[in-house]
Every structure is written in structure tokens, then in C-alpha cells.
Specification:
Chain A: InterPro entries: Anti-sigma-K/W_factor, Anti_sigma_zinc_sf, RskA_C. Chain A: GO terms for molecular function: sigma factor antagonist activity. Chain A: Its main location: membrane. The complex is a heterodimer. Chain A is an alpha+beta fold. Chain A contains 7 helices and 8 strands. Chain A has an 8-stranded antiparallel beta sheet. In chain A, helix 3 packs across helix 4. Chain A starts with a helix and ends with a strand. Chain B is mostly helical. Chain B has 2 domains: about 90 residues, Rna Polymerase Sigma Factor, Chain: A (Orthogonal Bundle); about 60 residues, Winged helix-like DNA-binding domain superfamily/Winged helix DNA-binding domain (Arc Repressor Mutant, subunit A, Orthogonal Bundle). Chain B has 8 helices and no strands. The longest helix of chain B has 23 residues. Chain B is globular and about 50 Å long. The chains are: A alpha+beta, B mainly alpha. Chains A and B meet through helix 2, helix 3, helix 4, helix 5 and helix 6 of A and helix 2, helix 3, helix 4, helix 5 and helix 6 of B.
Chain lengths: ~290, ~190
């Protein structure tokens, strides 16, 4: 079982998109339970689709919350009553005659003054009980409101925290990019456009001591669909693959760390098929520059 | 650094696992009030996806309500070890919505609409409490058009992979690799 190959096959993506037969899906679940790497990749895929779904989020129109929640409640209660009512209806037994309503006097007519005093006490107690019930009901309703507000506030707090995390992550990326720009060990190689793309311009920051290579695009023509930019280091005129440019890097949105390079005198970028090519296509050379 | 500095480095709004666990436990215990919290947490995402599929607001509302009833009744079949609650409920609602358009297409098959030609353009959710929310435009900018089309057909139009292959005149294997590439782009936005 080659786990890496399995992950690369795209089967996990089809599983998450619910494109597999039940048997295939069961196989994916079995493998995910067995191999943590597959489980982790599957989780990533599911989160990515969740992200895509979430990007389509639409705030429901006003009033929908009440309608949907009460509609849900009704549906659930009806269905809960239905099975309970069914067995009663099944046997064909003539309904028993309804028992006659029995009316009992609440209290015997007062006969003594002591009885009358007791009656007043009973009324007072009933009133007190009613008041207390009313107060309980009010307090209970307020408690429910507060609990609801609390859970909303907690949810908000959670999203703020997540937002904060996102900002911190972005800041960390920027800080490390700035570190590269300011590091004196880094040497900057300016790559200028070839005849094919005269306006194109990009820079490589290369640290010969640590072998780290960063690419910083100023302007590259948008890659056509199915194509991707590839960076090459030229060591004694021999091209060495330095990795593929991500869409964000090719658009100039951020620096990208490329493959480490042991030695180079020049750098170049070519436009290759998605995923790259073992050797540069010289006809697709877009920018190139010598290290000074 | 490039002229534009507006990368999408963001996170999904991921509720802390504890809160999700609590919600799952309450739903499993058939606590009706938990469904209110469920609504407050997930309705915008679910409604957005359903609306994207059925494209009619009233129908989307019906499907969301149906979805909640279904989630309630089949909650025992949710297995947290297979994925997050959001993933599961999303699939339940998505399947209901796709069933809905399939039965509609069946009824008026002579008027089947071309892909992606909805006259309605819905406003994306504006929610100040979701600072980390990635806008659709930003996402679309990261996916190339081919990748977006494949994900949309598979995810929102209810196409099978062989239907996609036929529709786009591509080999089946290419559909698979493109779907994987697209999802990889998306998951890189999370990391």
C-alpha cells in the first residue's frame, strides 16, 4: 500500500465530493481509520470544501430564522406524535363512550364563620401562588434570553479569536518576508523580460550560505490555463529546477520560498505545463537575470 | 514585494472542538433548543450553499428547514470520527438541494437551463462578526477557471464525474486530477 500514491490519486477528493459508490466509500473510510496520513489528508480535503462552501455563505433574509425554527419544531413534533398515535388507530375497536363529565362542587356552602375565614385564606394562598407562578415564568423567560445571548456572545468571541489567529498568521508571514528582504546575506538577482515578455520583471533573493531562494514577482503575464511558471537556477550554464511558482507568488501577492539551491550564477523563469518540466523550455523563457 | 499586497491567508471559522462537541452531545440527546444554536451557527453557510444550488430563495428556505428535520431525525448516524459536524450537515443539505433540482429538471426537462446562467446575483453575506471569512471573489481569484468549473459541477450541480467528463469533453482521469488540484489550492489557503 503506497500511501503517498493513494493520496495523490484524487480518491479522497472524490469521497469528500460524494462521488464514490458505497463500496468505494467504505474502502476510503477503512483506509482513513487505518492510516493517520490518509485521515489527515481527508480532513484537509473536507476542510477545503468547507471553506469553499463557507465562501458562498449568504445571510438569510430577516424573519427566516423564526419561520424555519418554528417550522422545524412543528415538523419534529408532528412526526413524534404520529408513531404514538398509529398503534392506537390500528386495532378496529369501537371507541369507548367518552366518560360523562363529572362536575363536583369546589366547596360546600359555607356553614360556619370558621369555614368562611378558611375560604379567604385559601383564596389569598391561591392568589399568592398565581403571582409566584407568573414571576417564575417571567424569570424563566429572562433566563432563557440571557442564555441565548450568552451563547451568541460566545460564538462571536470564538469567531473573533479565529480572526485574530488569521491576522497573526498573516503577520508572521510578513515578518519572515521582511526578514529575508533585510538580511544582508541575501543577494538580489533582478530578472528582466525576454523578447517574448518585454515588460516582465521579477527578483530572486538568494542566500548562498543557507541555500535559501525566494522569488518576488513584480510583473509576469497571467499564466494561461494549464500552464504554470517554473523557476530555474543556472549553475555554470546548467539549469537546475528551483520549483513551481504558486498562483499567489506569480501574481505578485507574496514572496515564495523556492527549492534550496547549492550554487548558481543566474536565475530564469519559464512557462511550463502545470506541475513543471524536468528541463526548461527555452522557447518559453519569460525572464532571466545574472547574479552581480 | 509586488505592487499588490493582498494575499488570502485565512482560516475557516472553526468553532473550538469543545463547543462543537457540546452541540453534538445536545443534538444526540434530542435537545430541541440545541437546534436554535445550530441555526445561529450554521444557517448562513448552509443557506448560501442551498441557494447556490436551487437558486430560488423560497425553495432554499424550504430545503434548509427540511434539512434541519432530517439532521434531527438521522442524527444517530452522524459519526464524529468520520469528520466534523459541519461537513456532515453540509452534505445532508447539499444532497437535499440537489434532489430538489433534479426533480425539477425532470419535470421541466425541455427547459433545462444552461449551466451557470442564473439571472439572480446574490449578495454575499455581510457579517461583521466574520473577519476571517474569505470572500467568494478572493477564492475565485485563487482557482483558475477550469478548476472552479469542475468543483462547481461536482459540488453544486450534482454532476457525477463521468457526466463532468462528458460535458467538458475531458478524459475521466483529468477530471479527477483537476478536482484534486482545485481542492489543493483551497486547502493551501487554510494552512
Amino acid at each position: 500500500m503506497n500511501i503517498e500514491e493513494y493520496i495523490e490519486s484524487g480518491q479522497l477528493e472524490l469521497y469528500a465530493l460524494q462521488q464514490l459508490t458505497p463500496a468505494e466509500a467504505a474502502e476510503v473510510e477503512r483506509l482513513a481509520a487505518e492510516y493517520p496520513a490518509i485521515r489527515a489528508e481527508l480532513t484537509r480535503v473536507q476542510r477545503a470544501l468547507g471553506l469553499y462552501a463557507d465562501a458562498h455563505a449568504v445571510t438569510p433574509p430577516a424573519g427566516m430564522r423564526e419561520r424555519v425554527l418554528s417550522g422545524f419544531q412543528q415538523a419534529v413534533r408532528q412526526q413524534a406524535e404520529a408513531p404514538a398515535a398509529a398503534p392506537q388507530a390500528a386495532p378496529v375497536v369501537p371507541p369507548a363512550p367518552a366518560p360523562e363529565a363529572v362536575v363536583r362542587p369546589i366547596s360546600a356552602p359555607a356553614q360556619t364563620t370558621a369555614g368562611s375565614a378558611f375560604r379567604w385564606l385559601a383564596i389569598a394562598a391561591s392568589v399568592a401562588l398565581l403571582l409566584s407562578l407568573g414571576a417564575n415564568w417571567l424569570l424563566y423567560a429572562r433566563l432563557q434570553d440571557s442564555q441565548h445571548e450568552l451563547s451568541l456572545a460566545q460564538a462571536r468571541q470564538e469567531t473573533y479569536a479565529a480572526g485574530m489567529q488569521a491576522v497573526e498568521k498573516r503577520l508572521a508571514t510578513r515578518t519572515s518576508e521582511l526578514g529575508v528582504l533585510r538580511d544582508e546575506q541575501f543577494r538580489t538577482v533582478v530578472m528582466t523580460g525576454t523578447a517574448q515578455a518585454p515588460g516582465a520583471r521579477a527578483k530572486v533573493m538568494y542566500n548562498p550560505a543557507t541555500r535559501a531562494v525566494y522569488v518576488d514577482v513584480h510583473n509576469l503575464p497571467a499564466a494561461p490555463s494549464g500552464k504554470q511558471y517554473q523557476l530555474w537556477a543556472l549553475d555554470k550554464s546548467k539549469p537546475v529546477d528551483a520549483g513551481m511558482l504558486s498562483q499567489a507568488a506569480a501574481a505578485g501577492d507574496s514572496l515564495q520560498r523556492m527549492k534550496d539551491i547549492a550554487s548558481a550564477q543566474a536565475f530564469a523563469i519559464t512557462l511550463e505545463d502545470e506541475g513543471g518540466h524536468p528541463t526548461p523550455t527555452m522557447a518559453a523563457l519569460t525572464v532571466m537575470g545574472q547574479m552581480l | 514585494m509586488g505592487p499588490t499586497t493582498n494575499p488570502v491567508t485565512s482560516l475557516l471559522p472553526e468553532p473550538p472542538p469543545l463547543a462543537e462537541e457540546q452541540l453534538v452531545a445536545r443534538l444526540r440527546a434530542q435537545d430541541e433548543a440545541a437546534m436554535t444554536e445550530f441555526y445561529d451557527r450554521y444557517s448562513a453557510a448552509l443557506y448560501g450553499v442551498i441557494l447556490r444550488i436551487v437558486r430560488r430563495e423560497e425553495e432554499a428556505e424550504d430545503v434548509l428547514q427540511e434539512g434541519m428535520v432530517k439532521i434531527w431525525h438521522s442524527f444517530q448516524s452522524y459519526d464524529p470520527s468520520k469528520g466534523r459536524l459541519f461537513t456532515w450537515v453540509l452534505n445532508v443539505c447539499r444532497n437535499l438541494a440537489i434532489d430538489k433540482i433534479r426533480s425539477r429538471q425532470y419535470r421541466v426537462s425541455s427547459h433545462s437551463q444552461p449551466l451557470d446562467e442564473s439571472p439572480a446575483e446574490y449578495q454575499p453575506a455581510v457579517d461583521s462578526f466574520r473577519p476571517e471569512h474569505i470572500g467568494l471573489q478572493e477564492l475565485t481569484r485563487q482557482l483558475n477557471p477550469d478548476q472552479k468549473q469542475i468543483v462547481d459541477l461536482l459540488y453544486f450541480e450534482g454532476y457525477t464525474q463521468s457526466e463532468v467528463a462528458e460535458e467538458l469533453n475531458l478524459p475521466l482521469g483529468t477530471v479527477k486530477t483537476r478536482a484534486r488540484a482545485a481542492i489543493k489550492v483551497l486547502s493551501n489557503l487554510i494552512r
